[in-house]
Amino acid sequence: MNRRFLTFSFWGAVLVVLGIAAFLRLWKLNEYPQGFHYDEAVNLIVAREIAFQGARPFPVFAAFNGREVLYYYLSALGMIGWGSHIITMRLVSAFTNLLTVALTIGIGRAMFGGKRGVIIGIIAAGFMAISFPQIFIARQAFRAVTLPLMQALCFWLLLRGLRQDKYTIWLALAGVSGGLTLYTYMASRLWPLWLAFFMLIYIWGQQKQKMWRFQQAVVVGLFFFLTAMPILKYYIEHPDVFNDRLSQLSGGEEAPSYAESIWLHAKMFFIKGDPYIRYNDPQRPYFDPIGGGLFLIGLGVCAWYFLRTKPSLMKASYALILFSPLMIIPSILAVGGMPPSHMRSIAMIPFVFFLPSLGFVQLGTWLQHISLSHKRKLLAVAILAVFLGMSWQVQRQYEHWASLEELYYLTDGDMVAAGEWLSENSDENTLIYITSLHYDHPSLQIYDLTGENITYLLGDRFYLPPHNQSAYFVEVANAPLAPIFMPYAQRFGEPEMHYNQHGQWAFTVYAYDGTQALSSSDSSTSESIGGWLRLNKTQFSDAISGQSLTVLTFWEIIASPPYSDLTPLFQLETQEGDVLDRVEPYSARTNFWHQGETLIQSVIFDIPPATPPDTYRVRVAWVGRSTDNYIGRIDQYGRFAGIWSDVGQVKILRSAEYPNPNTLDIPIKKSADFGSVQLLGYNALSAELRPAESIKLDLYWYAETKPTHQTLKILGYDENGTEYVWWEGAPVMNRYPFTEWEAGEVVIDRHRWRVPIDLEGGKYTLWLAVDDQQLMLGDVHVANLTRIFERPNPMNELNFNFGNIVQLIGYDLPTSVIERGKTLELTLYWKLLSSTDLPLTVFVHLVDAQGHIQAQQDTQPRQNSYPIALWAVGEYVDDHYQIAIPEQLPIGEYTIRVGLYLQENGQRLQIIDNENDFGILATVQVE
């Protein structure tokens, strides 16, 4: 009778615990949590591909920084039976967690044995059943839920196998399930160490059976390694995937130190927990006050029994439980991930729940000593009532948290609702433009809203659809449209507002029926970028020194480019080409552009403080970012027209308030008083210069009063004290004289000039002179250039006059027959006719009979080491080239063409008295 009562009590307690756990995990699962998180949507997509599209990612799903795959395959099985919905994956999570609760009971019984083990296991499972973090993870489609299950299964099988004095299938299964833990979640990577720690404690001190126990450990380790070998091999071959996830959580400047992270995690257990509302009722500790108190008692009890118990399975079990709080090390190390994190601490489950369980059992033992043993049934009823009350309380707390308006947006509820609406109202012929925090947002992909017809707007760009093409523009609450684009969004049509269950704005739809053109052009240019897009017009905001400048560029899409990341590089420059600011907007999915669309690109420049009033230029270049391939401009004749496009010029005005001189980043701070103006400093000068080479000098000024100075000079003194005027004029290259400055004004005075071309080599000391006052800036060394003014004797004479600037007088071509895969050697001989500061590039093209380029080399003379701007009039320069002949080039006759051009705009120099802008040198035979 007593035995039957104990059996009934055991199964009754098990059913109560599992029943409560099931209720807390399944009640209103279709309602809470709201929406579904970005990661949940990704997991749904992957599981769906496995279940229905034949995808077989293994051992790691490489996308999204690498993700372990066990959860995906479990979810795919669920989808086959229950359908490919987010609720299916959450059911998989719920039942996975329920199974972990059940295994916790078995672990307690296997660790401690007998009635005491049963009680410890049931109480530990009870604490887990009503744990808020465990209820959270069980109701989410997150991979992390599989880690506690596999750890619990591995440990339960291991205990079963170790209690038998022979090799059993239990040990092999323990090794297999242990290896499978590595396929669950990132925090599993320390599980092999904890398993080895348990086995070491178990084996240590056993004199008679040490070898036998070691052999058992070898069996477990062998099956563990065989199971884990695919993922271990993958990580060895792809260390970037292994390390990338870890580096994402490494500390930045604002991240806590490791010592601070340890303290935050120590408080997590019963003082202050995960701060992020997306993963926790903010600051809620892992255990409530009752559980926290029992947790501390359990730590003491566990330490006591561990020290006093002889080497045995029970001693090893006490060790694992005692040190289970340290299983949160992955979360401690993730200082960049808003510690403490309940999610990344999940490796301590289920073992940490045995600590409050041991504390509870010990508390019961103490109560027995105060004459409560004869009231066990009443005590059991009281315990059940407390357990039910705590269950009810945690259910109310979870439902309150899951209903928060803020959580709706944190779970991408607005994007989910927008995706559902679009799936019901759009068709394959409708273009969709939607604001988003991510490209290829998975919350839309789950509705099969992918492919060429959807464009994500991430804040700095907007699109107007082609004429006669129906389209929707959708603005979601999590990613509101930048106000600067709102006038263009309103061209789509009247807005249709949509709200969530809280009555808060979720998303807005603008519908365009294609009947009226939404874009217009102010430009008549026929130039294009690679034949894919054309600049139509530009708009500038007001530009004030020290503030921001917004530039809107309007691009007509001519065709979709072959690049998915065609990226614009915008630069704000001085007239001399000094870059004040550079902006590179992120680009993706550009290969899905549609002909006839208008891309509106917004760029915000930060104008440096103390920038003087002047006219500045904005330029742009386009590049295929992944290949670093710069896209050339194509002129109306289909020829290359350069890399950089002029967007426009903007007048930067003087600020009403001048910056504090002490806040300027001045390379060399050197104060000098020139009367009404004070020099604050300047940049370092180049130590080595060549005649005609450009000098960069930035002067930082502060006008104490209204300046009256007239001239500014840069003087150079040679070693004999002879004075040379290197530059003379007014500040800002003669465009902002001292007399136009105001009292209190701070000015960055940028100067660019060339070393006098006829200057002899040697050491020069540079001085800054303002009117009659001077200040030494520093020493520079001017190199002696060996210039040749005697005409050389090339093998082949020519007379190509390029623009009256440079003359090609001949060339050396050692051979007219070249093998494929070899290098063709060519030497050109030039003569400078008139001085120039243009950065001219020489092109040498090997063309076929149709004029198509088959091999080439473009560079400034002498492989960019001796630009034409440094040459002296009448100087002769030999210029060597090596043309690599492609191995796959067809055998035949090819022509060598030579010319010069400006790389920034592609403009070629015309040959005087010749219709061509290139010279034909010779023909070569390729064999």
Short overview:
The protein has 927 residues and is α+β, with helices and mostly antiparallel strands. The protein has a 5-stranded mixed sheet. Strands 12, 13, 15, 16 and 18 form a 5-stranded antiparallel sheet that branches. Strand 26 and strand 27 form a beta hairpin.
Task: Annotate the secondary structure layout.
Elements: H1 2-26, H2 38-52, E1 60-61, E2 67-68, H3 70-82, H4 86-112, H5 114-129, H6 132-138, H7 146-162, H8 169-180, H9 191-203, H10 210-237, H11 239-248, H12 258-268, H13 289-308, H14 313-322, H15 329-333, H16 354-372, H17 376-402, H18 405-410, H19 413-425, E3 431-435, H20 442-445, E4 454-457, E5 461-464, E6 471-476, H21 486-489, E7 495-499, E8 505-512, E9 528-529, E10 533-540, E11 548-557, E12 566-573, E13 579-583, E14 598-606, E15 614-624, E16 629-631, E17 633-634, E18 645-652, E19 668-673, E20 677-682, E21 688-689, E22 694-703, E23 712-717, E24 723-729, H22 731-734, E25 746-754, E26 762-770, E27 773-782, E28 796-802, E29 806-812, E30 817-818, E31 823-832, E32 840-847, E33 853-859, E34 876-884, E35 892-902, E36 919-926
Parallel strand pairs: 3-4, 3-6, 21-27, 30-36
Antiparallel strand pairs: 1-2, 5-14, 6-8, 7-8, 9-17, 10-11, 11-14, 12-13, 12-15, 15-16, 15-18, 19-20, 20-22, 22-25, 23-24, 23-26, 26-27, 28-29, 29-31, 31-34, 32-33, 32-35, 35-36
